[in-house]
Amino acid sequence: MWALVESDSITKLINNPKSMVIGDVQYPAKIFQLWSESELNAIGIYEVTTNSSNFKDEKWYINTNESYAFADDTVTRSWGTATPKAHADTLWTAQDETDGKGTEGEVATRGLKYNLIRDLKITVANILSETDWYITRNTEKSTAIPSAISTHRDAVRTKQAEMETAITNASNTPALETLYKYVNIGTEENPVHERPLGELPTLES
Fold first, then answer.
1. pLDDT tens per residue, range 147-167
2. Domain presence at residue 90
3. Which contacts of 71-74 are long-range, i.e. CB under 8 A and separated by 24 or more positions?
4. Where in the sequence is the domain holding 124, given as residue range(s)?
5. How far, CA to CA in Å, does 36 sit from each of 33, 42, 45?
6. Least crowded by CB within 10 Å, which of 93, 147, 166, 196?
């Protein structure tokens, strides 16, 4: 991406090379490939550099709109300070009820914790569904459920409870993000990536 700078102000963003009229001169699109940086700068075209230090994972944060600035012969694309998404449910207030928006104390919007636990329950249901046929066969035919299957199903439910507790106990959005962030607990030569939340057990084949 490039920007056209005129009188020290960005007047146009250029996503792809194209022919342009700058001043009274028509320039072909190929100048973006053939000209040097200094040659482009001389006619007011600058390649955009990106400063993503404020840009956060959109699963956990609401980012500001991107902005562009020209200073010290550089065009920079950046973002403002991101806002953490609500980690807990937001409830309707007394004023909201007065304004006819909702009933005080009831859920207005769901927070991250609710959504994460909901997704976890769906994942667990899908995992257990893979071995549900053993339960159905036992019910219909009295065929014994293999001990490995029972152990696996119990382990999944136990881990689910641990994960739900960890999510519920997270004090804020950064704490939730940390639960899901993989870190290397091994070495650089033999990396082992794990996350504090852990993983649901898999059935050994």
1. 999 999 999 999 999 999 999
2. no
3. 73/41, 73/46, 74/46, 74/49
4. 111-194
5. 8, 10, 11
6. 147
